[in-house]
């Protein structure tokens, strides 16, 4: 019995010792510092397609996810205001052309002929009054007629001379046409209307919105038939060839990360393969992204920095929004401490 109790006691002590060793090992491994992962995401250049002309969405020529080429017409806008302005401008153009032609061609042939006839009539009247004045003047010198009679005939003659000059001026004006100032004003009016029409034609062209880049349609904001204002975003196009990674890094982990350094990233969505990247940009983020010290004495606020890395080669199947993990490279150490 004593031997059995002694064996059970030894067995219990051995089991207790094993448990203590296991707990100690677990504690040791648990207290070890785990490597801190620097994670970020893939981003790409995004272009917003918007129009200069307000109107309704008449047609979307591409769906979300479609590939587009630079210069492709992606959206068509219907704008009745532009068409109404074109109708007004066309009417103004016809009126300006008519005024310009009238200024260039001068008076009509009937007006010129009428002015000539009036001039001829005035010349005949002038000749009659001239002869009458000469006869009365001769009689006055002989004392046959009074001075008053001579003055009346002379006044009629002078009036006939003035009438002839006025008729001649009217005839010359009809031959010459409009004044140079009037012609210049008419030509300027035509040019002004032409400028308005050119502006409206440009607005017409703005109804067709073009893709600014080769890329992929990411999002369409309004629906077909909806009203859009001037400058309102209508479609988003992503340039899949211009992609990068953005990481939010605490400043106490920033010592070995400098612009120009090369690292590697792992993209879980694409497997375990590592891809080389280069740091191109480091900038402190806003105060909203700052870790605050929780110690009452000592300590400091830790800022967060925005680190941008560009892939050194194209990454197949990489999509914006994919998670990326910055890992240790052969050139730069202490990234995953």
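Sequence proposed for the structure above (337 residues):
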């Amino acid at each position: 019995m004593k031997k059995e109790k002694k064996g059970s006691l030894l067995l219990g002590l051995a089991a207790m010792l094993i448990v203590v060793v296991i707990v100690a090992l677990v504690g040791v491994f648990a207290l070890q510092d785990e490597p801190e992962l620097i994670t970020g995401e893939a981003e790409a250049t995004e272009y917003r397609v918007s129009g200069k002309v307000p109107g309704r969405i008449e047609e979307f020529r591409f769906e979300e996810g479609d590939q587009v080429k630079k210069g492709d017409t992606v959206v068509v806008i219907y704008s009745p205001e532009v068409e109404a302005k074109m109708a007004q401008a066309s009417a103004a153009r016809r009126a300006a052309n008519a005024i310009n032609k009238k200024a260039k061609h001068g008076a009509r042939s009937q007006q010129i002929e009428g002015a000539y006839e009036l001039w001829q009539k005035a010349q005949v009247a002038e000749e009659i009054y001239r002869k009458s004045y000469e006869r009365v003047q001769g009689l006055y010198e002989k004392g046959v007629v009074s001075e008053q009679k001579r003055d009346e005939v002379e006044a009629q003659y002078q009036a006939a001379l003035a009438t002839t000059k006025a008729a001649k001026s009217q005839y010359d004006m009809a031959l010459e046409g409009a004044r140079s100032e009037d012609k210049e004003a008419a030509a300027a009016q035509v040019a002004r209307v032409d400028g308005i029409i050119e502006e409206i034609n440009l607005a017409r062209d703005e109804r067709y919105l073009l893709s600014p880049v080769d890329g992929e349609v990411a999002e369409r904001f309004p629906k077909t038939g909806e009203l859009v204002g001037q400058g309102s975003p209508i479609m988003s196009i992503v340039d899949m060839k211009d992609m990068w990674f953005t990481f939010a890094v605490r400043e106490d982990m920033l010592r070995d990360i400098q612009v120009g350094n090369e690292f590697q990233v792992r993209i879980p969505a694409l497997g375990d393969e590592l891809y080389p990247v280069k740091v191109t940009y480091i900038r402190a983020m806003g105060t909203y992204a700052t870790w605050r010290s929780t110690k009452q004495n000592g300590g400091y606020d830790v800022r967060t920095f925005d680190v941008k890395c560009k892939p050194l080669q194209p990454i197949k199947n990489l999509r914006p929004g994919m998670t990326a993990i910055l890992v240790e490279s052969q050139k730069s150490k202490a990234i995953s401490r």
